[in-house]
Write a structure and sequence with these properties.
Strand content: 25-35%
Radius of gyration: 14 Å
Helix content: 10-25%
Distance between the termini: 31 Å
Shape: globular
Oligomer: single chain
Largest sheet: 7 strands, mixed
Strand order of the largest sheet: 1-2-3-4-6-5-7
Number of strands: 7
Length: 124
Amino acid sequence: MLDERLERMKRKRNCRVYFDSDSFKISDCTVAPVHDIPDVIHENQEFDFYIETNYDVYLLRIIHSQDCVVSIYPAKLDGIIYIVSSIPVSKDSMKECIQKVLHVLEIYGFPKLKNPKSNITSNI
């Protein structure tokens, strides 16, 4: 339990550099985009975001797709919990799509999402 807490603190400290003036709030989370979002988004185009909660930091990848699924991948040693979501997005709807994905993750414990032992996939 103590090791897990130390790992979370280490992740938050290491990811602090990604949270800057481009970051925005969604509910109780701070979201930091890794990429600029273009006006035109093509099928299967990917966008990464760091999501910081009071509990931990996660890496969210949004893939513009009609699949409407979300997958959670466990963190490896010294890694970060990786969340991949395939969902239709546009530049104007990106924040709402992120909020929708985070809402789906609540059934798995988000915003205090613990490192799963195996991959988890769910429909949105």
